Fold this sequence. Notes:
This protein has 90 residues and is α+β, with helices and mostly antiparallel strands. The protein has helices at residues 5-21, 67-76, and strands spanning 28-37, 42-50. A hairpin with a 4-residue loop joins strand 1 and strand 2.
Amino acid sequence: MVAAAKPVVEGEERLLAALAAQAYPLARVIDRKVVVDHAARSMTVDWRIDTGPYARFDRRPSKGSNRSIAISCRRACPGKPANRSTRQGR
């Protein structure tokens, strides 16, 4: 087995994609440490990851549906009414 950079980079991409699928779309690698032991013919990779904020997104609302927009506004700004007239494009 030859120590190569390609599997490390591909593994990093898979790791970030898995974090994005688990609601961490802004995850990023802060540091990567690769240690190759030629005698044992092994390689160890340690990543330091900043997951960023948890960010779950709801499904896209169906065409013409304003109800989900109003619900999202109420969740984002509790205590404030959802005012559709202030949305851009209206």
